[in-house]
Amino acid sequence: MSTDSWEHWLQCALGELTERFVTQAHPVPAGLLEALEADPRRGAQQLARRIRARQERNRSEGQRLRHLLRFETELWAQGMTHVAGVDEAGMAPLAGPVVAAAAVLPQGFRLKGLDDSKKVLDARKREELAVAIKQGAVAWAVGRAEVEEIDRLNIYHAGLLAMRRAVEGLGLTPDYVLVDARKIPECPAPQRGIIKGDSLSMSIAAASILAKTTRDALMAELDATYPGYGLAEHKGYPTARHVQALREKGVLPIHRRSFGPVREALGLAAPESSPPVQAELFPAEPSAKKGIL
After folding, report:
1. Is residue 94 part of a domain?
2. Contact 163, 273 (CB under 8 A)
3. Pairwise CA distance, residues 184 & 242, whole Å
4. Is 275 part of any domain?
5. pLDDT tens-digit profile of 16-68?
6. Dihedral, CA atoms, 201, 282, 270, 287, nearest 10 degrees?
7. Are 121 and 170 contained in the same domain?
8. pLDDT tier, 126 (very low <50, low <70, confident <90, very high otherwise)
9. Which contacts qualify for 290-293: CB closer than 8 Å, 24 or more apart?
10. What is the DSSP letter of 182?
């Protein structure tokens, strides 16, 4: 009897079937699910329900991933092979650089669980996704803007600079660039800014994961260099613990001196209401319309 036949598997212990078709998620032979549902054993019927639930989750995830590729699919259909997604991490923290990433995914790319990094709450899962993205991407790169650049340009423009560096680091010129919520000055390719793009575009979501995991790893390294500030735990965000450490331990070279809590710890006056503008580097962009920049 073939091991691919449902009759063969129906003779196996239910624990073995559960391990193979639920835990390991192997394809279910034709007829097996119906046979389990007709089996008078309660355990067999429970197993059938678990398998059907898994199949439904897989279908839903497949639909989600196809929807997440709609911007890329449209561009691929126009002959644009290399579509880069770009996003950043670290705009709000008081310490450390802002980090951006760019990712060019192959056509038809699928990665179960890939989503905006803010929705992937488990750090280990984010790391696993980052490894898979790096292995599967046509090209990927990260760019950063240092604390001194953040203080000189302001955080918004420094984020754009990090994004441009990420695109320039790809090793290829993309045919098109999809960016989360903004447009990149002096971008080497046509681009489209998408409001909430990290939740709407798989390429941007991939870049979001790469930027987040890269910056998190950097902050863990800085935590070892500057203990006592909790940088590995809260990544430099202005938590109560971080603000208290600023007051008690002082300001570090990695702190952003243009940010209010840091200036307060230094005893400096609040910065001017108008941030520095680098018009020659960052020309004004048109306002957002219908989620597209």
Report:
1. yes
2. no
3. 31
4. no
5. 989 988 888 888 888 888 988 888 889 988 988 888 888 777 777 778 888 89
6. -60
7. yes
8. very high
9. 291/194, 291/195, 291/196, 292/192, 292/193, 292/194, 292/195, 293/179, 293/181, 293/182, 293/183, 293/192, 293/193, 293/194, 293/195
10. S
User: Is residue 182 very low, low, confident or very high in pLDDT (cuts 50, 70, 90)?
Assistant: very high
Nearest-angstrom CA–CA distance, 56 and 14: 21
- Measured between alpha carbons, how far is 137 from 223 in angstroms, rounded to an integer? 30
What amino acid is encoded at 251 in this protein?
A: V
Please indicate, yes or no, whether residues 190 and 93 belong to a single structural domain of this protein.
Answer: yes
Q: What is the mean pLDDT of residues 191-197?
A: 96
Based on the fold, state whether residues 104 and 125 are members of the same structural domain.
yes
| pLDDT at position 272 | 55
The per-residue pLDDT for range 93-106, each reduced to its tens digit, is 999 999 999 999 99
Angle at 50 between CA 46 and CA 52, to 5 degrees: 115
> Which residue in 143, 155, 144, 162 sits closest to 256, CA to CA?
155
Residue 217 domain flag = no
* Strand positions, DSSP E, 105-146: 139-145
pTM for this entry: 0.78
77 and 60 co-located in one domain: no
The separation between CA 203 and the C-alpha centre of its own chain, rounded to angstroms, equals 9
pLDDT of residue 285: 40
Q: Which amino acid is at 140?
A: W
Residue with tokens 């340009």: 153
pLDDT of amino acid 278: 34
Whether residue 128 is found in the same domain as residue 176: yes
HSE toward the beta carbon, residue 279, CA cutoff 13 A: 0
Backbone angles phi, psi at 194, to 5 degrees: -120, 120
Question: What is the C-alpha separation between 211 and 167, in angstroms, rounded?
Answer: 13
Q: Are 191 and 85 in contact (CB under 8 A)?
A: no
Provide the 3-class DSSP secondary structure of residue 231.
helix
